[in-house]
Amino acid sequence: MVSKMLIIACLLLLPGRLLHDFYISICYIKSVDGELQVNYRLFKNDAEIALSEQEDADPEFCQHIAEYIISHFAITEDKQPLKLHLKECKNEGSGSLETISCFLVAEGHHDDSKEIAVNSTVLLDHFDDQVNMIHVMLDGTKKSFNLDRDRKTFVLSLP
Q1: Is 157:77 a contact under the CB 8 Å cutoff?
Q2: Which residues pair with 131 in a beta bridge?
């Protein structure tokens, strides 16, 4: 019983950063009314670490986080790059598990595309075990990919 209480006490005394011992981002890509939408979610404290290395970047502002994501995330359709724009951003959760969701829209999307390629290096330069989970829902096709240091890109053929 004493050992259980000691373990619980140690866990409560750990700083919030240590409780967040996995590094993951989740991205959803889907087409809604002809618009390619990207919802990229990551832990706020991870984004703050990434932004702290940029001069004059204030991690409190969603625009800086979106700019970071856009600079480390690319989508091509039929080998043509799509330009991403920030639509909105919101925070969810609290403490070390607080997340930021950036809702992006892709300029130049066509519903009749035959191939989509995604490259994500988001946070890979900051965390060795970072995993970027990408979920694609296009043209009745649903696929998920885990991207990391060894695999940064995938190509998906569409019907």
Answers
A1: no
A2: 24
Sketch the domain layout of the chain as residue ranges. Answer: 22-157
Predicted TM-score (pTM) above 0.85: no
- Cα(36)–Cα(30) distance, integer angstroms: 6
The pLDDT tens digits of the residues spanning 57-110 come to 444 557 888 889 999 999 999 999 999 999 988 888 887 788 889 999 999 888
Could you tell me the CA-to-CA distances from 4 to 1, 13, 15 in Å, in that order? 5, 14, 19
Beta strands in the chain (DSSP E): 24-32, 35-43, 73-77, 80-92, 99-107, 115-120, 131-138, 141-147, 153-157
Distance (Å) of CA 75 to CA 5, 52, 80, 106, 119: 49, 26, 8, 8, 7
Q: What angle do CA 9, 42, 117 make, to 5 degrees?
A: 145
Picking from 7, 38, 40, the residue whose alpha carbon sits closest to that of residue 25 is: 40
